[in-house]
Amino acid sequence: MSDRIAASKTTDKGATRADEVRLAIEEDIFLGRLRPGTRLDEESLAQRFNISRTPIREAILQLVHAGLVEKQPRQGAVVAPLKLHRMVQMFEVMSEIEGLCARFAARRMSEEEKQALKRLHDTSKAHMEARELDAYYAVNRSFHEAVQAGSHNEPLQEIARGLFARLAPYRRYQLNHPNRVKDSFTEHDDVVEAILAGDPEAAYAAMRRHVTIQIDIFTEFVSIMGGNEIQ
């Protein structure tokens, strides 16, 4: 038993360090410090973060899964081009999928689930007012997961979870945009109001609008960084 507990603690610690590395590299990519084509050297990253290569490899795998990094023959892991058209397409699909989740949640959520969603929304308000971006994003993710679960449609939830994971770095980054956290909270407010009122179409429209708005933010970002594809 003690061996399993020790192994579990080691794994959790490793995952946490991998997440920290991933977030740092994501920031470097979005701020232009790591340009497309830049090779991610495991040894250099391990020295930079003063950790072993294991969490570095895990962080790189997460970045590959998100599409921010790609593996190339003889080069290993390199920063991938940010393709605007691909990102827009993914957000278009995400807006429909999460819109459907909200529509079904308005019909199917129990009163207990509705109140839990409202508590998450209320919790996010303090983080929004204090501009605690990491804390707000964590609650934001729980908020979306609660709406997805509230759909009570397993196939729909599976699709939503997969897309959410792929878009997570971009959704986190867009919170840095001026006034975005405040606007995000207001958009969530519309979603909550519609779900609590049991209005499926209003919930669908509010959630779809919330996700679609993020496309404009990234269009602006990619334009600033250099066109439809950052090379």
From TrEMBL:
Matches recorded under InterPro entries: GntR_C, TF_FadR/GntR_C, Tscrpt_reg_HTH_GntR, WH-like_DNA-bd_sf, WH_DNA-bd_sf
Pfam families from the UniProt entry: FCD (PF07729), GntR (PF00392)
Protein name: AsnC family transcriptional regulator
Ranges of residues in domain HTH gntR-type: 15-82
Keyword line: DNA-binding, Plasmid, Transcription, Transcription regulation
Keyword Phosphoprotein found: no
Coiled coil: none
Family annotation (CDD domains): WHTH_GntR
Organism: Azospirillum argentinense
GO molecular function terms noted in the UniProt entry: DNA binding; DNA-binding transcription factor activity
